[in-house]
Amino acid sequence: MQFNCLIWYSNLALPSEDNEFVANFLGQACKVIQKEIDEVAGNKYHLNLEFLHIEKGEEGLKQLFGKFSTLQDGFFTNAHSITKYNDKIIKQVTDKRAFIFHQSPSLATDANKNIFGISRVDRQAKLSLIDDEISRSKEKILFLHNEERLYKDIRENYKNNSSFIEHSFKDIEDKDEIKIKVNELLSNIKNEDLIILDLNLKYFREVFNYLEEANATNVVINTFGSVENRFKNISFKLIQTVGNLATPSLSIEDLFLKVFKRDLPSEKKNLLLDSVYRLEIPLLISQALDKCEDQELRDLDSIAIRQAILSFDGSKDIFLGKRLQFGFDENGKNIINETFCYTFPNSLQIKDYVTPKILNPRQYKTVKKEDLKFNCIYSYIDILRVTNIDIQSRFWTAEFYLDVVSQFDDPIEELIFNNLSTLNDKFEYKTIWSRKEDGTDYATIRYYVVANFDFLPLADNYPFDWQNLFISTTLKDGSHHVLQPIPLELLDKDFDINEWVIERSFSGIKYQKNRMYEDTDLKKTVNVMSENRVGWIMRRKNTATLLKIGIPMFFLIFLVYYSVFLDYQSASDSIGILTTTFLSAIALYFSVEKPEPKKMTIIDLIFVWFYIINGITVVTYGLASFFSEKMFYLTTVSLKGLIPVSLIGMGIYLYRRILKNREDILLDREV
After folding, report:
1. What is the pLDDT of residues 461-506, one digit of tens each?
2. Max alpha carbon distance in the chain (Å)?
3. What is the C-alpha separation between 363 and 340, in angstroms, rounded?
4. Residue 155's domain is classified under what CATH number?
5. Half-sphere exposure of 299 (CA within 13 A, CB side)
6. Which of 243, 286, 358, 405 could connect to 37 by a Cys-Cys bridge, CB 3.0–4.6 Å?
7. Do 385 and 496 lie in a common domain?
8. Looking at the DSSP assignment, which residues form a beta bridge with residue 470?
C-alpha cells in the first residue's frame, strides 16, 4: 500500500543562497526521513516522500499546482508559510481529497475535510506579555500592524488607553511608501515609548532600520516573523515572541549531521530551524499509519487515517517528532501550544548579521485557559578540565565553573544534574562569588564544581574512537520557573583534557515521551519530558597506542613477509620464524591496553588479521614443503601477492571505518 507525501518549500524574503541552502537541506533531510520511515513501516505500507522547491508568489503556486495534478488523490502535504496563499492551496487539495497541514493560527481547521492546524503559538501568552509591558510603560504606546493576527485583540484591549496609538500598513505594499510611512510615524518618538509590532518582515525591517539609524533604545515587542541573522545588529531592546524554543533538539542536531556530514555554525542552524517544522509532517503521517489496521491501509481508508491522526489528542497520546509535539482537538487543531519571549543582548553581537538571543526574564503560558507567568533561570558552564574518561565504568570527571543567574539565594539547589554517575557518585561544589544585578531581583552566583557524569561509551573503534560527553540539567520544580538552554554562542569550546581533542561542542534539548497508568482503572496519560544538554564530541589522541602497536607489528609483518622469500631448503626455518611471530603477536596483544566492556575494536581486528595471515602462511608452508619443490615455489609466489593485497585491503577497510566515527555518535540517546 503506497501513500504519497509532498513536502515543499517556497522561496522567502532571503538572499538566493540562503533559500538554496534551506531547500537543499529539506530535500536531503526528506531522503534521510524516508529511510527512517521505511525501516519502521517494513512491509505494512510505503510512504513515498517527495520534496519540491518552488518560486515565491503566484509563479510558485503554478509550479505547486502542477505537481499536485501528478499525485494520486489522498496525498499529504504542508501549506504555505504566507497565509494569503493558503485559500487557493486548500481548494486544490480538498478537490484531491488530500490531507493538508498549515501553521496559520488565523486559518480555520476542519478534520472532516482533512485540514489540520499545527501552529504551536500560544496567542494568549503573547497578549499577556504585551499587557505586562504596557502596564510598565509610562509613555506613549505605538502599535503598528497589518490588521491581522493579534490586531483585533490588542485594539479592543487598549482602545480606551489615552497613550495608545495604532497605525495600519494593510494597504501599503510599495517598499518606498513603507519607508516613508515608518519615518513619519517614528520621527517623534522618545526612547521611553513602547513600540508593538504585528507586521510582516518587509514592514518591520524598515522599523528596525530606522531605530538602528536613530540609535534608539526603545523597548520593541515583535509578535510575528523571524528576526535571526536578518539584521546587521539589534541595539534597541527587542522582545521577540516565537512558538518554539530557539535551541535545537538533539534529534534535529543528529539530522543536521546526517545531511551535512559536518558541524554547522549557529547562524546556519537558526536559518534552518524556521523550516524544519515541515519535516514533522511525514513523521506524523508515519506514526498515524502505524496505528491503522492492515485492511484499512489496503483500502486507503481516509477516515481511519484521519482518526489515527486525531488519536494524538494531547492526553492519551502525543505526537513527538524531531523537534515538535502535536496534539489535536476534534477539529484537527493542535492544542499543544507554547510561546517563548526572547531578547537580543548587545554583548553577544560580536559579528555582523549574527544576533544571538536568550530567553526574556519573564515567560508566559496558557494552561487550561489560565494565564501563567514564569521566571527564567540562566545557567552557564565553563569547563576547567576533564580529568578522567573511563570507558569501562562509563563515567567522566569534570571540574568546572557553574554560573547561575536567578532570584534564588542558592540556585544550584534548584537544579537537577540528570546524568550524575550512579556507580561512581561524586558531586562537590563551593560558592566562589555572588553579585546582585542593579535594578532587578536577579543575582549571579558562581560555583566551583567537581563531579562524575555518566555517558554511553563507543569503544568499537578504539584507539581511534570518538566519545560524546555531556551534562544534562533540569529544574526540580518547573511550575514557576523555566531553565534557559545554554546558547550555542556561549558554549565552552576550549579546555584542558589529556589524550583527547575537542571536535565540536553542542547545546540542545532531549525530548522523551513518557506513558503513565494512573489510579485503580489504570487510566493512561502521556506527557513529554525535556532536559537541557550541553556537551562535547571528543576524539582520542592515539599517538601512544599507535607507537606501542605499530612499531612491533611492523617488524612482525616484515618477518612474516620475509619468510616467504626463503628457498625450499629453508622451509623449516620459515616455519620457525612464523611460529615465533605468532607467539610474539599473542604476547603483544595481551600487553596492549584495551577498553571495557569487551568489544571487537580496531586493535582486535588488526591482531585477528595478523593471526589469519600468519596462520595461513604457516599451514600453507607446512603442507607445500611435503610435496614437490615446484608446488612449494607456486605457493610462495601466491603468498607474496596475498600478504600485501590483504594488508592494503585491511588498511582501506579500517580507514573507511575510522572515517565513519563521527556518524556513529548520536546525540539523541539515553545513557
Report:
1. 888 889 999 999 999 998 899 999 998 888 888 888 888 999 889 9
2. 113
3. 6
4. 3.40.50.1970
5. 10
6. 286
7. yes
8. 535
Q: Residue 106 corresponds to which cell in the numbers above?
A: 488565523
How many domains, in total, are found in the chain?
4
Residue 271 lies in a domain: yes
- The DSSP code for 71 is S
Domain with 267, as residue range(s), is 2-121+246-326
Tell me, yes or no, whether 82 and 158 share the same domain: no
Beta bridge partners of 381: 402
Q: What's the pLDDT tens digit per position in 210-227? A: 999 999 999 999 999 888
- The span from the CA of 647 to the CA of 524, in Å, is 58
pLDDT at 64 over 80: yes
In a shared domain, residues 383 and 516: yes
Closest CA to 392 of 426, 423, 428: 423
Angle at which helix 266-273 crosses helix 250-260, to 10 degrees, equals 110
Q: How many CB atoms lie within 10 A of CB 233?
A: 16
At 518, which CATH number?
2.70.170.10
Give the whole-angstrom CA distance, residue 506 versus residue 537: 8
- For residue 61, tell me if it sits in a domain: yes
Grid cell digits, residue 250? 538533539
Residue 336 lies in a domain: no
Residues 609, 598 contacting (CB under 8 angstroms)? no
Q: How far is CA 10 from CA 107, 116, 290, 469, 528, in A?
A: 19, 20, 30, 39, 31
From 242, 260, 288, the end of a domain falls on 242
Residues 409 and 534 in one domain: yes
Residues 6+ apart with CB under 8 A from 608: none
Task: Check the CA dihedral 404-410-414-418 and report its sign.
Answer: positive
pLDDT for the residue numbered 75 = 96
Whether residues 275 and 318 fall in one domain: yes
Tens digits of per-residue pLDDT, 47-61?
999 999 999 989 999
Residue type, 65: F
- What are the Cα distances from residue 623, in Å, to 335, 426, 618, 619? 77, 61, 9, 6
**All 3 cell numbers of residue 37?**
520511515
Helical segments of 99-229, H only: 123-136, 151-158, 175-186, 201-213
Q: What is the pTM of this model?
A: 0.89
Domain shared by 13 and 105, yes or no: yes
For residues 413 and 529, membership in a common domain is answered with yes
Q: Is residue 510 situated within a structural domain? A: yes
Half-sphere exposure of 513 (CA within 13 A, CB side): 19
CB atoms within 10 A of CB 479: 7
549 in the same domain as 536: no
Closest CA to 140 of 156, 126, 158: 158
CATH number of the CATH domain containing 564:
1.20.58.390
E runs forming strands in 229-309:
237-242
Rama region for 353: left / alpha / beta (φ>0; ψ in -120 to 50; rest): left
Q: CA-CA distance, 555 to 417, in Å (whole number)?
A: 50
Closest CA to 585 of 563, 604, 572: 604
**Is the sign of the CA dihedral 324, 329, 331, 333 positive or negative?**
negative
Final residue of a structural domain among 540, 575, 607:
540
- The residue assigned the cell 596483544 is 589
Joined together, the cell numbers standing for residue 629 give 619443490
The β-bridge relationship of strands 523-540 and 500-518 is antiparallel
Residue 470 CA to residue 389 CA, distance in Å, equals 12
Question: How long is the chain?
Answer: 671
Name the percent of the chain in helix, strand, coil, to the closest 5.
Answer: 40, 30, 30
Kindly report the backbone phi and psi dihedral angles of residue 397, in degrees, each rounded to the nearest multiple of 5, phi listed first: -115, 135
CA 528, 531, 532, 537 dihedral sign is negative
Q: CA-CA distance, 648 to 651, in Å (whole number)?
A: 5
* Beta-strand pair 466-475/415-417: antiparallel
